[in-house]
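Lecture notes, continued. The same structure-token format from the folding unit now serves as the input rather than the output. Read the line below as a description of shape only.
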């Protein structure tokens, strides 16, 4: 009886002591799965971007597909691991119930604790967690009266923006993550082969700004490096610098006191539409356009409701394919061009979204080692085909077509399309640095693509400019034949002028510091 009682006590002790080990082992596995999924799905090497997105006063930051992917990739494997370990532990307990000792259970717990600690610190290191406290601290600083804003920000005023008697239409195409870097080295890119041959030729035949005679583009500053930030900076001339705690109106309206390109066009009687191949609510992108000029926004849900897509259509990526978006854009242009007023049609592609893009039926599968390259080439073909179609339409003569990459491709650490680079896209690999020296470029930064087709202005030399997203605001207007007094709007400078941009006058780090601090001037865009 005593022996049996002792064995029973040991067995009870084993069961109680095994629970902490099981919990710690499961947490360790969960952390490692979460880390692997996070690194493969998000640009965690850009802590400033992550904090800005999470802290910004916008809605729609997490969608159903992200949650579903996380459940399948992280929590389901973790649950399976826990069940397997539990059953295996129970099996060993039954098989060796007379020989198991409390000491062995304690050793198991110790090993589980070590595994958990290793997983925890690996998670912190790989996600750059230790950089977040300083960034959060910056976000929480009180607003200051900024001399930089007072001296460098130019508020758009109606009497200083003069439209021509015959107003030009604008087709504004934002290509997701499209870089000049996707060209080959001979044309100014960073790839071994030219993934964007059509965009390269279009840049040669039309206006495309850069630093030299090769394919150029814009530099990426803080607060401009993800889609909604790119939209705000390119059309409003300021960074995305919203703070949730300081912007209770952000859900109802998006920077209501900021004057943007679509505000100006709306005041001039333009008929305006913007198309998304995904959910317009994501990051409040649709709200931005609706808040500025009353742009009619159409997205995945709109096309479902109108019957132009099946009611349950979703391609499993972000919404629907770019070839459908171009189809809808053509249909909208045919309607807009029949009106009596000038029009603005903008749309944002999505197939080239990181980390892997979406391989649609039009994509030619030539790169099995990296399908994203096929997606880029497919995007290049589709936009060039669309521009060719536009040139054949009656409205083309009076229409400016602008194509821009919204921001740099957000590389993930587990799948680097380029060589290793820091969060601003500054390359560090030796052969890229040498290639830059051969090209005699001024910087080693990657660049987002820009193209102006059928511009009302031509420039003698558009190949000696260093610029950012801010400069697109006045440049777009002047390309439409609009006279902008002083050639400056927001933080931007028209690249058709001889005026110098911020990047041509100040160091990049200084601009980032001054534009991203909390200021009463930025607060005034909200209140």
């Amino acid at each position: 009886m005593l022996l049996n009682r002792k064995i029973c006590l040991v067995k009870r002790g084993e069961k109680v002591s095994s629970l902490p080990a099981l919990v710690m082992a499961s947490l360790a596995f969960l952390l490692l799965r979460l880390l692997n999924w996070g690194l493969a799905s998000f640009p965690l090497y850009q802590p400033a971007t992550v904090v800005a997105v999470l802290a910004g006063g916008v809605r729609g930051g997490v969608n159903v597909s992200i949650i579903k992917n996380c459940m399948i990739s992280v929590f389901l494997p973790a649950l399976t691991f826990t069940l397997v370990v539990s059953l295996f532990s129970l099996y060993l307990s039954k098989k060796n119930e007379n020989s198991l000792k409390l000491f062995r259970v304690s050793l198991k717990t110790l090993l589980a604790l070590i595994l958990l600690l290793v997983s925890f610190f690996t998670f912190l290191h790989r996600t750059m967690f230790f950089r977040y406290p300083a960034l959060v601290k910056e976000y929480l600083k009180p607003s200051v009266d900024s001399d930089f804003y007072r001296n460098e920000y130019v508020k758009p005023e109606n009497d200083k923006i003069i439209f021509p008697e015959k107003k030009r239409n604008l087709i504004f195409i934002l290509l997701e993550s499209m870089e000049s870097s996707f060209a080959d080295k001979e044309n100014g890119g960073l790839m071994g082969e030219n993934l964007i041959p059509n965009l390269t030729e279009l840049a040669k035949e039309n206006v495309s700004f850069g630093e030299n005679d090769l394919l150029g583009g814009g530099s990426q500053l803080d607060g401009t490096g993800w889609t909604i930030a790119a939209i705000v900076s390119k059309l409003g001339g300021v960074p995305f610098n919203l703070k949730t705690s300081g912007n209770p109106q952000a859900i109802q309206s998006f920077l209501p006191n900021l004057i943007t390109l679509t505000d100006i066009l709306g005041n001039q009687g333009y008929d305006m539409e913007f198309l998304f191949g995904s959910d317009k609510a994501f990051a409040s992108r649709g709200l931005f356009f609706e808040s500025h000029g009353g742009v009619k926004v159409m997205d995945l849900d709109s096309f479902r409701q109108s019957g132009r897509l099946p009611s349950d259509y979703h391609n499993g990526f972000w919404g629907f394919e770019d070839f459908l978006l171009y189809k809808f854009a053509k249909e909208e242009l045919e309607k807009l061009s029949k009106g009596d007023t000038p029009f603005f049609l903008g749309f944002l592609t999505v197939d080239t979204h990181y980390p892997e893009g979406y391989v649609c039926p039009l994509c030619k599968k030539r790169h099995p080692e990296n399908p994203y390259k096929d997606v880029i080439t497919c995007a290049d073909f589709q936009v060039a085909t669309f521009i060719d179609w536009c040139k054949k339409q009656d409205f083309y003569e009076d229409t400016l077509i602008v194509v821009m990459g919204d921001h740099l491709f957000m590389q993930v650490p587990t799948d680097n399309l380029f060589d290793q680079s820091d969060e601003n896209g500054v390359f560090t690999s030796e052969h890229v640095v040498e290639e830059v020296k051969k090209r005699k470029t001024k910087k080693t930064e990657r660049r987002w693509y820009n193209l102006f087709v059928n511009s009302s202005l031509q420039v003698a030399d558009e190949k000696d400019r260093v610029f950012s997203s801010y400069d697109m605001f006045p440049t777009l207007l002047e390309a439409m034949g609009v006279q902008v007094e002083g050639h400056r709007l927001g933080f931007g400078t028209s690249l058709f002028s001889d005026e110098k941009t911020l990047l041509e006058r100040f160091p990049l780090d200084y601009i980032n510091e001054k534009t991203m601090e909390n200021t009463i001037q930025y607060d005034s865009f909200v209140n």
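Point for the exam: The chain has 18 helices and ten strands.
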